[in-house]
Design goal:
single chain; 10-stranded antiparallel β-barrel; TIGR04219 family outer membrane beta-barrel protein; OMP_w_GlyGly; signal
Length: 245
Amino acid sequence: MRRLMVALGGALVLAAPVAQADVVGLGASVNYWNSDLTGNVRDGGDFVDVDNELNLDEDSSANAALYVEHPIPILPNVRLAYTQVEQSGQGVLTADFGGVNFSGINARSDLDLDQFDVTLYYEILDNWVNLDLGVTARDLSAELVVQDTVGAGLKNTTTIDGVIPMGYLAARFDLPFTGVSVGGEGNFIKFDGDSLRDFNVYGQYEISLLQLRAGYRQMAVDYEDGDDQLDVEMDGPFVSAGLSF
């Protein structure tokens, strides 16, 4: 992991002199992400399908982002982003999950996921083609609670908590004189067989200070630690409104 962070940091330093903002810029946005969760999870026992067995399909989502760009050479620009996803469901579970034997028991599942990103990046291109390159530190916290609904006292809680370094790339193509643009941005890391990616593509319309976006976002995690495995994907459309100064 240390070698990966050094490599990402080196790429960021090499990119630093390419482009800088002429003035201080500030932007903020909020969005709603209608996400579906698919895949499998194992907590020291059997594999469990999060869609077909846990039926995690009732979701709510809160997302926000803030960025600051400046004309100071060498120093990177800063982007902060927060994502909160809550999903719940109920189904019949037949599995040994986390040392708890759910043998055909009606179970309720609740997933709470919070992540906070701090991204340092440079503008490589800044005209009708915009390109940003940087690194992200992602503080990821997730909790999955599975418990019976019949009073049998069966319950398991699986947690993930850590800070993950990731690469950051964003590109946008502006259609001159229209206020319309298309683009995409993403974070990614792959190390020692594990991987995490989080990307979105969008169309944007800008009028005065207001930016309106609609697009598609996908986040995928492939993680293995002994008998604990997580191979899930969360994706779906999103809409966003923001202000840029």
